[in-house]
Amino acid sequence: MHSNLISPHGGTLVNLTVEHERQEELKRLSRDWPSWDLTPRQLCDLELLANGGFSPLRGFLCRGDYESVCENMRLADGTIWPIPITLDIPEELAKKLDNGSMLALRDPEGVMLAVLRVEEVWQPDFMQETEQTFGSTHPEHPGVAYLTNSTNPWYVGGKLECLQLPNHYDFVELRLTPRQLRDRFATMGWHRVVAFQTRNPMHRAHQEITFRAARELEANLLIHPVVGMTKPGDVDHYTRVRCYLSILKHYPRNTAMISLLPVAMRLAGPREALWHAIIRKNYGCTHLIVGRDHAGPGSDSSGRPFYGPYDAQEVFQRHQDELGIQMVPFKMMVYVEDRDEYVPVDEVPKGAAVKTLSGTELRGRLAAGRDIPSWFSFPEVVQELKRTYPSRSKRGFTIFFTGLSAAGKSTLANVLMVKLLEAGGRPVTLLDGDIVRKNLSSELGFSKEHRDLNIRRIGFVASEITKNGGIALCAPIAPYDSVRKEVRQMIEAVSGSGFILVHVATPLEVCEQRDPKGIYAKARAGIIKEFTGISDPYEEPTDAELTIDTTTMSPEECVQQIILHLEKEGYIGPNG
Ligand code: PPS
Known about the structure:
Blueprint: H1 20-29, E1 35-37, H2 40-51, E2 59-60, H3 63-72, E3 87-89, H4 91-94, E4 102-106, E5 112-122, H5 126-134, H6 142-149, E6 154-162, H7 178-188, E7 193-198, H8 204-217, E8 220-225, H9 237-248, E9 256-258, H10 270-282, E10 287-290, H11 311-323, E11 326-329, E12 333-336, E13 341-344, E14 354-355, H12 359-368, H13 379-388, E15 397-402, H14 409-423, E16 428-432, H15 433-438, H16 448-467, E17 471-475, H17 481-495, E18 499-504, H18 508-514, H19 519-524, E19 546-548, H20 555-568
Parallel strand pairs: 1-4, 7-8, 7-10, 8-9, 10-11, 15-17, 15-18, 16-17, 18-19
Antiparallel strand pairs: 2-6, 3-6, 4-5, 5-6, 12-13, 12-14
Helix pairs in contact: 5-6, 9-13, 10-11, 14-20, 16-17
The structure holds 3'-phosphate-adenosine-5'-phosphate sulfate.
């Protein structure tokens, strides 16, 4: 144990907020400066830079520090720092900036939060960054996916002067800054504080870990959940915070507290564990609990984990002395039935029956409206989760028809809509290809770019409907696989599952023969260009939940297949 090496409550804390007078000056001067509206992730990074959570950083990384961090997990001066904190901007803005330029950083409402004194603008090598930071270039790794799909191509580095922290209106009293948390610990006389990092609801296993850690170290406990950005598809932070607050009642009075951490996770596993440690030290903690697969994204779709279960612990161990905060390692906890107790997997008595319940299983039980066992969680937590995740028969969903023109998409969608309305219980919205093109996408043509944009718009509307408990029926041609998958992801992110792709696979010859609008004839004659199936591609889906050929079946028969599928998957009950 090196506890006496650690000064309680953290070390030097950077504070980037400037005095009132300077703030007024910056506001005046900013009229002549370019400005940038921060993305959600950049807002999180800015908040932790501004409040000192990212001490010793004083701004977004410049190239030398960036490359050194990616390669060696250290700033150029050798200080340990494992995650690149960079400000990505589009080329158009990058071209306006030079060493010495000032860039106003604003929130989505246009409020100026900070000013960046530009030192360097450059185009990073994302491939190299993903390899070095995540040890992976797998597109299913959420950190890799973010860097590849959602990051602007230029980075701008420099020091920051901050005017104010980003505004938050939720759980305000629980959002303590590093300074406030350190002061609180000092006031309460908490000298040893063990932090528990989480992006999930806490159940009995987690509570046992925190109990054990606090007991063994004779320390107080800080539940320090991430409420910035976590893995897409995670339980939203509103629900989680309500769960944490209810769990807090199960700890002895004045031994544990909760504060929210507005960090944007990268899910970089071992590197992220070190980063979490530095952040927790800055927030005044002396210890951090590191469990199984800390800050890892789990496994890819073929079941291969991105990181070994205890990689993060090993890396932490190697750097512990220079981090200035200690790790409290935990093996996976399992429930031992005979003892009605959670124990680390390596402490299970020989032959004892153990139980675990995976996240996937938990989601499955909630979706099916089944019970969550009391050995797994607390009734208050289960109740909160059930409120947020009602069973599938009460959730929204999207049925996305795809297929050639005249394949029968609109007919099936219309019949299905009527059947669902007949059954009642949820609002139904039909987003038919033709109707969408008359309203939402009236300015678009049929290039790949415009078709993709059209489908993204439909996907966006459908995801809003699904999120709010409605049924969206979409019926565009949607000829391209990648954008269909994008829409699937968008909708699955808001509803767990809730996306049903129906391939209306009526063959081209039949569609052309039907030709109700005479449109195939025009396409053959070259009057209509880029016509799907004739002069433009249609990529057959390989991920459709249902494939229906309308050549020989009546619309009612086809729709019956869909209804049976919905019943089987629990989206509708026998009575609708
Ligand atoms: S897409 O590819 O999903 O954006 O297409 P979508 O929005 O479904 O629009 C297809 C309807 O527009 C008519 N139309 C064409 N379709 C395909 N290719 C070309 N070039 C084209 N030009 C006009 C066509 O009638 C489609 O209607 P449906 O209802 O599918 O028959």
